[in-house]
Each structure stands twice: as C-alpha cells, then as structure tokens.
Amino acid sequence: MPKPIWTSRRTWVAAWAVLCAAGLAATAGLNASPAPDPRPERSVSAECAEYVADIERQLAKAEQGGEKDVVLTFSRVQVGTEDDCGDELRDHLRGVR
User: Fold this and answer.
1) HSE value, Cβ hemisphere, 13 Å, CA-based, for 46
2) Burial 48-66 (b: 16+ CB within 10 A, else e)
3) For the whole model, what pTM was predicted?
C-alpha cells in the first residue's frame, strides 16, 4: 500500500487563502457588473385594463366590507371579448406592473 503524501499546513493554508481571494474577486466583479435591462412595458388592451380594474373594484369592495379572507373565482369564458386577459391579470395580481 503506498504511503500518503503529507503536505504541510502551510500549503493547505496558502491554497485556502488563494481560493478565498479568488472568491472575493469574483464576487466584487459580479457586484460591479451592471444589472440586466428591465422588462419592457407591455401594452394592455382597453378590454383587459377594464377587466383588471373591475377585479380591483371587487377586491376593494370586499375589503371595505370587513372580509379578511376573500376568495375570487374566475371563469375562463368571457362574453364579448376577443383578447385573453389571463397573462395581464396574472401579472397584475402578482404585482408585476
């Protein structure tokens, strides 16, 4: 069985120090880089904006009525609309505006 190669503590400490320095340099480089561009604003159709505003009114009315736990249900069928407002509604309720 071969004998293990013993390395000095000084070598281990030096290797650890080099790795720490490299990590700090990489972190500083990432922090100095500019942030990615924000998402461009999407235009929302008038029908979808009206639909989202109606839902906001329903939520505000329920909160004024003293209801703490409000459950809104949505139907997939919207009479008289050509747009699917699901993405706009999802973004609005998640806080992406």
Assistant:
1) 0
2) beebbeebeeeeeeeeeee
3) 0.44
